[in-house]
Specification:
With 329 residues, the chain is mainly alpha-helical. It has 12 helices and 4 strands, in the order αβαβββαααααααααα.
Length: 329
């Protein structure tokens, strides 16, 4: 048993750390928290290329690799490798309604505020800060317009849509605050995948968004939710030494040493050794890397072309066909 544990290396590959978090990407952070809650031993690694790839995060367990764009989703796939935290909980009558709120209402609100309703610096820091300015600008513009198309947002209905998105988020916060009460977890006072999803959402809202953020303001009105996030953050991130910088929201330094007893899981910042046998997806990444510089040049040309289409009043003139692209988060 011990020999098997030493030979198998579990690695979670995520986007880079920022805002005092081990990763600023909400999907990556939920996967990280799930592994922590399940007490699965793993190493943390970073993938800095292709920030628009829907394959990140991905989890390497020995020779097998699970990607974020798997049909079941990264969390359900992690249940097979790290253990199912939802056993005995997913059959509860309140499970499905709360899962729907987390994966639709709150996910939509977070997506909207990241790309449309807030300062673009948060999304840029999470996804594009390592890219050249023109390439990052084009990718941000592309994603922001994809979000608007997804939610059918236009100039005529922008205010109504925003009010609707934030209204559903507020209802979800109210419901989750009532569900949590004074417990430490959402269901039966034990961790679940929904805790991982909600904690990732809350940490991004509280630490990546500015004080003027509507989501941050509304979330902070629920004292028990703030307490819940703070306590879990101290246990899962700060005590494990995986918070890369000071926490601007809670006012507590992100310690690099244990502060609440030793952690049962390992998530050390280490680079991956080169594997002798590579998966098809890894080989594809290497082939794509050869064209990365070319892609940057194309992005510069595209950006300049877009800017040349800006009218005197500052609005971008687009044909209907210009917005037809399949962007996967």
């Amino acid at each position: 048993m011990e020999a098997n544990e030493t030979t198998q290396r579990n690695t979670l590959v995520v986007r880079k750390p920022c805002f005092g978090l081990p990763t600023g990407c909400p999907q990556c952070l939920s996967a990280y928290i799930y592994l922590k809650l399940s007490q699965c031993s793993f190493h943390l690694d970073y993938h800095l290329n292709y920030p628009d790839s829907d394959q990140i995060p991905y989890f390497e367990a020995g020779d097998s690799v699970t990607y974020n764009n798997e049909k079941e989703g990264i969390i359900d796939c992690l249940k097979k490798d790290a253990g199912d935290l939802d056993v005995g909980l997913s059959s509860l009558p309140e499970w499905i309604p709360n899962k729907v709120m987390l994966t639709t209402w709150l996910a939509d609100a977070l997506e909207y505020e990241l790309w449309v309703g807030s300062d673009p610096s948060s999304a840029s820091s999470i996804y594009y800060s390592d890219l050249s300015w023109p390439l990052g600008k084009v990718l941000f513009w592309k994603k922001a317009n994809w979000v608007k198309l997804k939610h059918e947002i236009s100039k005529d209905n922008a205010e109504v849509k925003e009010e609707d998105i934030y209204g559903r988020a507020n209802s979800a916060y109210d419901a989750l605050s009532t569900l949590l009460g004074e417990d430490n977890y959402l269901f039966e006072n034990r961790p679940s995948s929904l805790d991982a999803i909600f904690l990732a959402h809350a940490l991004v809202v509280l630490q990546a968004f500015p004080e003027s953020s509507i989501l941050r303001t509304n979330f902070s009105k629920h004292a028990n939710l703030v307490r819940y996030v703070q306590q879990r953050k101290e246990e899962l991130i700060e005590a494990a030494g995986t918070s890369p910088s000071n926490d601007p929201y809670f006012g507590a330094g992100a310690s690099s040493s244990t502060s609440g007893g030793p952690s049962t899981s390992s998530s050390k910042f280490k680079r991956k050794p080169k594997k002798e046998q590579q998966t098809k997806e890894e080989k594809k990444y290497k082939r794509r890397a050869k064209y990365f510089v070319v892609a940057q040049v194309v992005a510069v040309v595209l950006f300049l072309s877009i800017m040349s289409g800006i009218s005197d009043d500052g609005e971008i003139e687009l044909d209907d066909g210009d917005l037809e692209y399949g962007y996967d988060d």
